[in-house]
């Protein structure tokens, strides 16, 4: 690897100073599963690596009356081991069990997955359907961005020079809320999504009608997509094959995929519809109280 | 830049201080600075698991950790798995089941399997195969490895 300086600040302010001093040649290090691999390949001309894992705010994982606060550098392993988070946000576990293998999950963070800003990132559609807010710090102070506005292109996002992600906040799940994330890959695990789909619903008190819904797709556009119209078409509708098909068709129409080594445009369009419908079904089951998830974080009985 | 820094860590249970460059990975520091050559470099980019170690008890690829990151932390490598000169049950069962041929992947498999049994002493075959999905072996076809891990788990039951 190329030579660089390594700094491990203990506070957000120290990290802001370190990143400011390093300018464009400085970058924060979270779990390193993307950044160190990129450094090994010579894809980053960095002179300073700022390890943010010694900053308490970036390692926080706590549930309060407001919801979940997740430090940007908390590893998937730590999330998977947190029973309160598993219980309150089972759909988040869909992603943390899918990102890499066991040893990647030991380091990889949800914040890092977001900041790497891959169109195929397995966490991002899930964050979108959870209405997550991204808390950013930088030389000009702090600001908050809705997660669906965070990514701006492949590997590109709203972070300005010197800014970094501090934490993510998940609103407290409202009553009758359920969510899910599914991806298609040609093998059982350890692969990059051909298509990923996140869905969330809020049901009526009798759990027969969808009050509101959100749908998000990965790997079908330069950024993960919030498919607003697919959620909107479900609002006020009874839960039925017909209504779910409408949402799936809109998701399919919203997908703007490319042909590449992982899949074709036609296959990805098709998968966008199928996965949207399946993710909605799991979200509905969870909203109705289903708790069990299998080892991939999926609801039992909904294997791909 | 590129000056060596001193890193203090607990390595296989012993307080250790070593010098490294920030750009060195933990794997490079283990092998080149500390002479612990049990951890292997297979791919060097987090795909094969041959360099797996426990960092504060959590399974990680040592090729995707910068050496200075382990300051103040605890690292267990394959060299720290046997205790008091006795093979760990996983090492013994890997021998009995002939779970290795060329042996390059074996340290990573043993460290990964130890991490699994530490978290889940009685895994199913499916649990073992899923947990070890990030460890690649080009010789054995995996079956003998899975059987060895399940044999150790059986004795835990």
How does this structure look, described?
The complex is a heterodimer of chains A (304) and B (157). Chain A has 304 residues and is an alpha+beta fold. Among the domains of chain A are: 1-51, Uridine Diphospho-n-acetylenolpyruvylglucosamine Reductase, domain 2 (2-Layer Sandwich), CATH 3.30.43; 177-287, CO dehydrogenase flavoprotein, C-terminal domain (Enolase-like, domain 1). Chain A is 31% helix and 25% strand. In chain A, helix 10 (241-254) packs across helix 11. Mean pLDDT of chain A is 94; it is low at 294-304. Chain B is α+β, with helices and mostly antiparallel strands and 157 residues long. In chain B, helix 2 packs across helix 5 (143-156). The termini of chain B are far apart. Chain B has two domains: 5-80, Ubiquitin-like (UB roll), CATH 3.10.20.30; 89-156, [2Fe-2S]-binding domain (DNA polymerase, domain 1). Chain B has helices at 26-33, 89-96, 106-119, 125-131, 143-156, and strands at residues 5-11, 14-20, 52-55, 58-61, 74-76. Classes of the chains: A alpha+beta (304), B alpha+beta (157). Chain A binds chain B through residues 1-6, 8, 29, 31-33, 36-37, 39-41, 47, 49, 51, 53, 75, 77, 100-104, 106-107, 188-190, 295-296, and chain B through 1-2, 5, 21-25, 44-46, 49, 52, 55, 58-61, 63-66, 68-69, 71, 112, 115-116, 126-127, 130-135.
């Amino acid at each position: 690897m190329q030579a660089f300086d390594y700094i491990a600040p203990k506070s957000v302010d120290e990290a802001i100073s370190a990143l400011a001093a390093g300018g464009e040649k400085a970058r924060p290090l979270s779990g390193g599963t993307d950044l160190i691999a990129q450094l090994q390949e010579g894809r980053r001309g960095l002179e300073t690596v700022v390890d943010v894992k010694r900053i308490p705010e970036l390692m926080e994982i706590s549930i309060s009356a407001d919801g979940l606060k997740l430090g940007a550098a908390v590893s998937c392993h730590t999330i998977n081991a947190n029973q309160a988070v598993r219980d309150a946000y089972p759909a988040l576990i869909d992603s943390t069990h899918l990102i890499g293998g066991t040893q990647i999950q030991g380091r990889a963070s949800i914040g890092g997955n977001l900041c790497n800003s891959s169109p195929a990132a397995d966490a991002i559609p899930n964050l979108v359907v959870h209405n997550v807010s991204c808390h950013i710090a930088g030389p000009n102070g702090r600001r908050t961005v809705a997660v669906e506005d965070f990514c701006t292109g492949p590997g590109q996002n709203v972070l300005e020079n010197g800014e970094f992600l501090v934490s993510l906040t998940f609103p407290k799940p409202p009553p009758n809320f359920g969510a899910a994330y599914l991806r298609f890959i040609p093998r059982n695990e350890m692969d990059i999504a051909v298509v990923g789909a996140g869905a969330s619903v809020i049901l009526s008190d009798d759990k027969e009608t969808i009050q509101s819904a959100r749908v998000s797709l990965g790997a079908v556009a330069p950024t993960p997509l919030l498919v607003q119209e697919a959620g909107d078409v479900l609002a006020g509708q009874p839960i039925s094959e017909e209504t779910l098909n409408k949402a799936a068709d809109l998701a399919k129409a919203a997908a703007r995929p490319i042909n590449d080594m992982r899949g074709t445009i036609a296959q990805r369009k098709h998968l966008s519809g199928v996965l949207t419908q399946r993710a909605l079904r799991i979200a509905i089951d969870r909203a109705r109280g289903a708790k069990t998830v299998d080892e991939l974080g999926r609801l039992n009985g909904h294997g791909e | 830049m590129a000056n060596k820094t001193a890193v203090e860590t607990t390595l296989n249970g012993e307080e250790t201080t070593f010098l490294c460059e920030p750009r060195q990975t933990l794997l490079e520091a283990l092998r080149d600075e500390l002479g612990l050559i049990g951890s292997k470099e297979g791919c060097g980019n987090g795909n094969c698991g041959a360099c797996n170690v426990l960092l504060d008890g959590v399974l990680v690829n040592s090729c995707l950790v910068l050496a200075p990151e382990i300051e103040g932390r605890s690292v267990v490598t394959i060299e720290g798995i046997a205790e008091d000169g006795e093979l760990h049950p996983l090492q013994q069962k890997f021998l009995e089941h002939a779970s290795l041929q060329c042996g390059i992947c074996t340290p990573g498999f043993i460290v990964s399997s130890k991490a699994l049994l530490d978290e889940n002493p009685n895994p199913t075959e499916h649990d073992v195969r899923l947990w070890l999905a990030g460890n690649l072996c080009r010789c054995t076809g995996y079956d003998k490895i899975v059987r060895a891990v399940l044999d150790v788990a059986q004795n835990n039951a």
